[in-house]
Amino acid sequence: MEAYGALAESYDRLTNDVDYGATVEFYDEILKREGVTPRSVADLACGTGSVGILFAQRGLRVIGVDISEEMLTVAQQKAAGLENPPRFICQSLQELTLSRAVDLAVCALDSLDYILNPDDCARAIRRVFRALNPGGVFIFDVNTPRKLRAMDGQVFLDEDEDVYCVWRGEFDEKANICSYGMDLFQRRGKIWVRSFEEHREYAYSREQLVGYLRSAGFSRIEVFGDREFREPGPEEQRIYIKARKGIVK
User: Fold this and answer.
1) Element (H or E) spanning 102, and its range?
2) Phi, psi of 153, deg, nearest 5
3) In terms of CB atoms within 10 Å, which of 40, 44, 50, 249 comes out highest?
């Protein structure tokens, strides 16, 4: 089964330790340093919409983009009661096409790593560049190659009273891809239903990603440690990258 199908309905429960508020606050600090006050944002690979909803609650025009219809269904349900709900569209980032350009694009939780072909990743970044207004900002994070390699052979378990998830990581050095098969057990009344998903992430280096950004036309590129304004260290598990589309003077 493809990633984020059966998992969608339990995703928020299994990731309730993710601090989306802190992530958005870090975006805010980056924007302050850039002197940018966006009015519109594209939440790329938005999943169940947690980041986009936080932006919408601040009054921004939000477009949430994801390739998983199941995740978008959950996002739509979560946003239904908002006065200013995001608009959600089902697209791959490689084919990103927005009806209106935006001031800010964000891509959270190592979503770019799910693009397994480097050429496709470069294409996605070019599409983001096209989707931004002049002076627009692109901010995203990725897992470091060190982290993905360290997942090889590791077994992880997440559970609550209605869902049980166990997964094991494997890293393929030749393919430069970390795969983890996920066994998911979800309670349906008195019975448990089992499903399986395979998740795969490509171990992009910062040099690759910076190169793709430059080739797309981005400038003012900066790389940060995990939600901190510092150079990433050798043990870093996650890095954030900020880039800017040229400003029309």
Assistant:
1) strand 102-107
2) 80, -5
3) 44
Any domain includes 50: yes
Number of structural domains the chain divides into = 2
pLDDT of residue 82: 96
Residue type, 103: D
Q: Which two tokens stand for residue 62?
A: 């939000």
CATH of the domain at 41: 3.40.50.150
**Residue 83 burial class via C-beta count within 10 angstroms: exposed 0-12, middle 13-18, buried 19 and up:** exposed
> What's the predicted TM-score (pTM) here?
0.96
Q: Are 78 and 84 in contact (CB under 8 A)?
A: no
**For 16, what's the count of Cα atoms within 13 Å in the CB-facing half-sphere?**
7
Residue 173 φ then ψ, to 5°: -65, -40
Q: pLDDT tens-digit profile of 58-83? A: 999 999 999 999 999 999 999 999 99
